[in-house]
Design goal:
Elements: H1 5-13, H2 35-63, H3 67-91, H4 97-105, H5 108-140, H6 144-152, H7 166-181, H8 183-210, E1 223-226, E2 231-234, H9 244-254, H10 260-266
Antiparallel strand pairs: 1-2
Length: 271
């Protein structure tokens, strides 16, 4: 009996990728990474977005002092997500992360969507970290970059930045060139900067421990202008100034910082 075009199209959307387990060790990728490289890659992904971008944003807009709880909730969810990745990685020992896992177990259409979501995730992650680098550097030179471009090339669009950030673009371009040179070379570069990041975090924790002030864990009520609703909003103050729901919303944003296991899964076949 002839199969209708509609059914053929449906089957094509949900066809599964097969895995040749007899030749699973064979790969065209260069196996040049070791355990330290993969570990540093995962830690570097978490530190880049989590420390320099997400922490301050969530504390300011969602959680206040309860940002520590938001990060804890996100960390617990990330542990379970990491266990799922470990299970999929054992059953489908191929590089490609969630894209390949979905392609093998669910179907091609959903794998197509997840693949583009992964690309979007890394694009947004790269842009946000590069923008944070740019702003931190700008603050060190007394905001000369932002002042210059705000005067010469301002952008008056709500969903865009106030000015074109050419410095962040240059950072992304330089890192792209380093990645294009080779996996081992770029991984060595990542290992060095991850080590520097860990030392900076350790230094901040040790120095901050001597300056800790318990009064900062309970904020007074504060009135601020909400750019989304264009109204003035007064929070409740305290440890959870914006309410329990906003703290959970902050946790969902914090989960974005724990994407290190995804980077490990993506480069697993180079191990």
């Amino acid at each position: 009996m002839a199969v209708s075009p509609l059914k053929r199209g449906f089957n094509a959307l949900f066809r599964l990728k097969t895995v040749d387990y007899d030749n699973v060790e064979q790969t065209k990728l260069d196996r040049c990474l070791n355990t330290l490289d993969l570990t540093a890659l995962g830690i570097g992904s978490t530190l880049g977005a989590g420390i320099y971008v997400v922490a301050g944003q969530v504390a300011k807009e969602h959680s206040g002092p309860s940002v520590v709880i938001s990060f804890f909730i996100a960390a617990v969810a990330s542990v379970f997500a990491g266990l799922c990745y470990a299970e999929f990685g054992a059953r489908v020992p191929k590089t490609g992360s969630a894209y390949v896992y979905t392609y093998v177990t669910v179907g091609e259409f959903l794998a197509f969507i997840i693949g583009w979501n992964l690309i979007l995730e890394y694009v947004i992650g790269t842009a946000s970290v590069a923008s944070a680098w740019s702003h931190y550097f700008d603050s060190l030179i007394e905001n000369k970059i932002s002042n210059f471009f705000n005067e010469t090339m301002p952008i008056h669009v709500d969903f865009l930045g106030p000015y074109p950030d050419f410095f962040a673009f240059a950072i992304s371009l330089v890192l792209a060139i380093i990645l294009a040179i080779g996996v081992k070379e770029s991984t060595t570069f990542n290992n060095i900067f991850t080590g520097v990041n860990l030392l900076v975090v350790l230094y901040a924790v040790i120095c901050g421990a001597f300056k800790a002030n318990g009064e900062n864990w309970a904020l007074p009520p504060h009135t601020s202008y909400d750019t989304k609703t264009h109204t003035y909003v007064t929070d409740e103050g305290g440890f959870v100034p914006f309410g329990f729901s906003e703290m959970l919303a902050g946790a969902s944003t914090c989960f974005y910082a724990f994407v290190g296991f995804d980077a490990i899964a993506t480069t697993g076949n180079m191990f």
